[in-house]
Amino acid sequence: TAVAGVAGHPIAHSLSPLIHNAWIAAAGIDAVYVPFSPLPDAFQRFAEGLRGGSVRGLNVTLPFKEAALAVAEEVSERADLAGAANLLIFNDDGTITADNVDGLGLMAAFAQQAPGFDAASGPVVVIGAGGAARGAAAAFVQAGSPEIRIVNRTLARAEMIAGALGKPVSAYPLDQAAAAFHGAVAVVNATSAGVASEDALDLPLEATPEHAVLMDMTYRPLVTPYLARGRGLRRRTVDGLAMLILQAGPSFESFFGRTPPPEVDVRAMCEQVL
Ligand code: ATR
């Protein structure tokens, strides 16, 4: 039996076990996908204990994505750029490989819900400057976006990401959001869950071009106040559930060596429990 899983704290509400176990069942693979919840300061010891391959791999979620990068001997370029890993592979020889497929999920979510969107066709905006924001900014760098504008309440945190990612990335304070929105082809909300309400953020979304695509990385609720406002302005929108599911696909491939069975409607399954 092949074992894979997801590590986070808290973990109880993770949708990943539901998604992966549905795919495992439909594919008829001898495998199981397990949720793990190491204590916040114990991730390193937890991951070290899995060396050798009894557990084939792990998805990693909050708050362990940076710690996951640090335990690995081998780090993919995209994980390095994101400064975080959401996927660890435990190799038979005892080494750990860190990867990050969140960026693949993000780009695939745009392709699925905003067909024709081209990340390289103009400036993009990322709201927030935590781990999620850095991951999104790194994905746009890799997708060839000519300019990535990070808007954050605390300018210094946005400047740190810009410093880490280099030339195409610049930092804006929240009160210059309208300037950052000028000419943008996409605006991604990467602020922490629960603060994405229009009242808390009060973003001047009307300053975005009509063709701009608005994306929210959170999916609780599925249609966040930010996305609802975007739809009210008749902008195209992309939700965080699409990103979650579309990063799960490449994770499943890494764990089990095959693509997920397409007949499973994982989105409907997830919507049922959200
Ligand atoms: P994560 O690692 O999940 O991205 P994080 O590091 O806690 O989470 O980052 C949360 C982001 O949401 C930060 O950019 C934060 O802004 P600050 O850097 O100024 O703290 C942003 N955020 C949280 N609450 C906010 C609020 N009420 N208004 C504006 N931005 C907020």
TrEMBL record:
InterPro entries in the record, alphabetically? Aminoacid_DH-like_N_sf, NAD(P)-bd_dom_sf, Shikimate_DH-bd_N, Shikimate_DH_fam, Shikm_DH/Glu-tRNA_Rdtase
**Which amino acid positions bind NADP(+), per UniProt?**
E77, G128, A129, G130, G131, A132, N152, R153, T154, L155, A156, R157, M217, G240
Q: Name one GO biological process term.
A: aromatic amino acid family biosynthetic process
Q: Where do the Shikimate dehydrogenase substrate binding N-terminal domain residues begin and end?
A: 6-87
What name does this protein carry? Shikimate dehydrogenase (NADP(+))
Q: What does the record give as EC number?
A: 1.1.1.25
Domain of life, per UniProt, equals Bacteria
User: What job does the chain carry out?
Assistant: Involved in the biosynthesis of the chorismate, which leads to the biosynthesis of aromatic amino acids. Catalyzes the reversible NADPH linked reduction of 3-dehydroshikimate (DHSA) to yield shikimate (SA).
Q: Which Pfam families match?
A: Shikimate_DH, Shikimate_dh_N
Keywords noted in UniProt: Amino-acid biosynthesis, Aromatic amino acid biosynthesis, NADP, Oxidoreductase
Binding of shikimate occurs at S14, L15, S16, T61, N86, D102, Y219, Q247
The source organism is Phenylobacterium hankyongense
Keyword Metal-binding tagged: no
Question: So which residues are the signal peptide here?
Answer: none
